[in-house]
Amino acid sequence: MERAEGLARLEVDGAPCVAYPRLTGPVAVGDEVLVNVQARELGLGSGGFDVLYANLTRGVGLAAEPGAHVMTLPYTPAQTAVRHAEEDGPLAETLGGMPVVCCSLHSQLAPVCAGIGAGMRVAYVQVEGGALAVSLSDAVRALKERGLLATAVAASPCVDGDVQCVNVASALAWAAVAGHDCVVCAVGPGIVGTGSFLGHGGVAGAEAANAAAALGGAAVLAVRASSVDPRKRHRGVSHHTRAVLALSLGPLTVAWPRGEEAPGWLEPRREVDVAGWEKACADLPLSHMGRGPSDDPTFFRTAFAAGRLARELVAAER
C-alpha cells in the first residue's frame, strides 16, 4: 500500500485500486472492501485502476467537519458535510484584474504553473469534467512541493481539496480575497469525453472564463494543441479549444508561443516568449495520453505559454 495526502494506492485481489480516506474512511491491509471495477473493465483511458467504494471491515465512521452543514455530492451515497469557504467570511466583489488561466485538461496544470513560476501565490481551482477528487492528482502534490502552487480549491461537485467552494465563481472570489496573485482552473485527471464538439469536460474552461470575466478578472485560455495526437479532432489545435472559445461570453485572451504558426480563427491571441520552458518544467510530472515533453513538445509548450502570460499580467499590475 502506498499513501499520499488524501489518497491510498493499494491492490484488491491483485488489481490496482485507489481509496480516498477522507471520503470513505481509513483502510488497511487485510480489510474487506467493495470496489468499483467498471472503468478498468471497460479499458477507459482513466480506468487503469479500481476505486474503493466501501470498507466493510471498518465502515465509514467519518464525523462531519466542525461547523459544517453543507453537503458535497448531495443526495448520493458519498455525501459528506464539509465546511465551505463561503461560510467563513465575505468574498471579493471583484477580482481586480487577477489572471485566471482556463485549462481544458488536467495535464496542462503543471506546465501552466511552471510558466507562472516562483514568487507568485497561485490557487488551483478544480472544476467538473474529470475526476472529482482533488486528492487524486499527483501533479497538485508535486507543484506544492516545488512552491509553484499554494492552495488547491475544490469547486463543487469536485471534492477533497484544501478548500471547498460551492462553484467556480465563488472559488475565484475566495482566491482573490485570500491574497492569491492568480488562479489556474482545470478539470481533474481523466477528462470526460464523447468525441463530440460539446460533449466533453473541457467546456468547463468556458464556465471558468465566463465567471472570471463577469467578476473583473483577466481570463487566459491555455490552448490544447498537439503535433502527434492520432485523432484528427485533437491534431493541431484541439476542438476542445474551439468549443471553449465558442462558449465564452466575455473577454478572453488566447496565449500562444511566439513565432509559431497558429490557425487564423484562434483569436484574440497574444504571443508569448516561451524560451526555457523545458528547464522550467524539469522534474515536474508531465504526461498527456502517455506522452511526455519529448514526445509532444507542442502540447506542453503551449500550456506553458498560458502560465507565462499570466505572470506577465500580474507583473503589469504591480
Question: Secondary-structure map with pairings?
Answer:
Elements: E1 2-4, E2 7-12, E3 15-19, H1 21-24, E4 33-36, H2 38-42, E5 50-55, E6 70-72, E7 80-82, E8 99-102, H3 109-116, E9 122-127, H4 138-145, E10 151-155, E11 163-165, H5 168-177, E12 182-187, H6 204-214, E13 218-221, E14 225-226, E15 236-237, H7 239-247, E16 253-257, E17 269-272, H8 277-281, H9 297-317
Parallel strand pairs: 3-5, 8-12, 8-13, 9-10, 9-12, 10-11, 13-16, 16-17
Antiparallel strand pairs: 1-2, 2-3, 4-5, 6-7, 14-15
Question: Notable features of this structure?
Answer:
alpha/beta, 5-stranded mixed beta sheet, 25% helix, globular
Describe this structure in words.
The structure is a single chain. The chain has an eight-stranded parallel sheet with strand order 11-10-9-12-8-13-16-17, with helices on both faces. Strands 1-2-3-5-4 form a five-stranded mixed sheet. The protein has a two-stranded antiparallel ribbon with strand order 6-7. It is built from nine helices and 17 strands. It folds into two domains: 2-55, no CATH class; 87-317. The longest helix has 21 residues, at 297-317. The protein has 318 residues and is an alpha/beta fold. Helix 3 packs parallel to helix 9 (297-317) and helix 6 (204-214) runs parallel beside helix 7 (239-247).
Whole-number total of structural domains: 2
**What's the number of helices?**
9
Helix/strand order, N-terminal first: EEEHEHEEEEHEHEEHEHEEEHEEHH
Cα distance spanning the termini: 47 Å
The biggest sheet, with number of strands, parallel, antiparallel or mixed sense and barrel status, is: 8 strands, parallel
Beta-strand proportion:
15-25%
